[in-house]
Amino acid sequence: MKALLLFANRYTRVHKANGHNCTSELRVPLARRVVSALIGATVCLSPSVFAHNSYLHTNGEQISSPVSHSSEESIAPTCHDVSLQVLGSGGPELDDGRTSSGYVVWVEGKARVLVDAGSGSSVQFGASGAQFADLSAILLTHLHTDHAADLPSYVKGSFFTSRDSDLALLGPDGNGVMPSTSAYLNTLLGQDGAYRYLSSYTQKAQDDYTIYPTSVSLNASLSSPFVSTLSETVTVEAISVHHGPIPAVAWKVKANGCTLVFSGDTNDKSNTLSAFAASADLLVLNNAIDDNAGVVARNLHMTPKQIIAIAKASGAKRVLLSHIMKRSEPGLAALLEAVSVVAPGRVYGAKELMNITLGKE
Ligand SMILES: [Zn+2]
Ligand SMILES: [Zn+2]
Fold first, then answer.
1. Which alpha helices (DSSP H) does the chain contain, by range?
2. Which of 18, 186, 222, 230 is a good FRET partner for 94, with 20 to 30 A between their CA atoms?
3. pLDDT tens, residue by residue, 151-177
4. How far is the CA of 147 from the centre of ligand 1 (A)?
5. Residue 79 Cα distances to 86, 124, 256, 261, 314, angstroms
6. 142 alpha carbon – ligand 2 mean position (Å)
């Protein structure tokens, strides 16, 4: 059965019916009917489906309004003028050809939130055209280098920008393995920090702006999430997620009626991601391992099978698979296909600088 599913994923293009007229469908290969039975979803094949699936493989280009889609039309009135741009689609590897994690949430044409600050993301930030002065906050999912190492680079780079308003830095609290986000900032940029020459940015009224850190409680949960209002248009929420021994949080950004959820690195041990991301306009899931990963990797990351299940259960309107590593890249195309079968909306494989528009422009 597993082999058939893999076959179906690799060699057929399938898509949940979603308004397509399946009665006019051509013959459906056996493998596809098996997929349908496995996931309990109706699948059909039509020219428009091929158009849709070619969209799945759009890489590195500006993505504007997707092909007309019934579920998107229903959300258009509330979610508008927001997009998500990928700065880094990779993990910590040196030779994967990808930048480490980083995402910009654009609201009404301005870069308002930076999610993760992984290695190299500051270079892509400049390439995206984002202005550091426009950021309301930097959100860190956790403090692994591929998610947080560029923080000093952003701060130093900001010297050459027009930023003059304070900046919020939000990330997880610490434990015996990792410092809290506040301690991380202080260790790097405090008066006794490694980059103490930049400490004026962490001391009140000592420079053009001050960075104010907040460490999110590791007890933040679905029933009691961390919540912070960043501005009139942007609110963020976080829940603690399991990433082996590393304190980690999943972030939710709400802006202009749009909801974006970032899993960060996690194995979703507490099985909370799908509820946290329920009906989100965009769900970013980290695809760092394959289904054959060992115990240690599975304690840190979601397997592709989990990703499919989370995407389906969440009902997210768009799913972006990111944090691609050399061990997960070979299975990415098949995983994108499989998620497209179960998820109600668009599915994307992340590439540097791709920009996904939410709602109507
Ligand atoms: Zn990572
Ligand atoms: Zn990590």
1. 2-11, 30-39, 47-56, 70-75, 121-128, 145-148, 151-158, 181-189, 273-276, 295-300, 304-314, 332-342
2. 186
3. 999 999 999 999 999 999 999 999 999
4. 6
5. 19, 26, 6, 14, 18
6. 7
pLDDT digits (tens, 9 = 90+) for 228-252: 999 999 999 999 999 999 999 999 9
Looking at the CA of 287, name the nearest ligand: 1
Separation CA 261–CA 120 (nearest Å) = 22
Q: Which domains does the chain have, with CATH numbers?
A: 1-54 (no CATH), 57-142+222-358 (3.60.15.10)
| CA 54 to centroid of ligand 1, rounded, Å | 28
**Alpha-carbon gap, residue 18 to 25, rounded angstroms:** 14
Residues surrounding ion ligand 2 at CB below 5 Å? 144, 265
Question: Ligand 2 center to residue 245 CA distance, Å?
Answer: 10
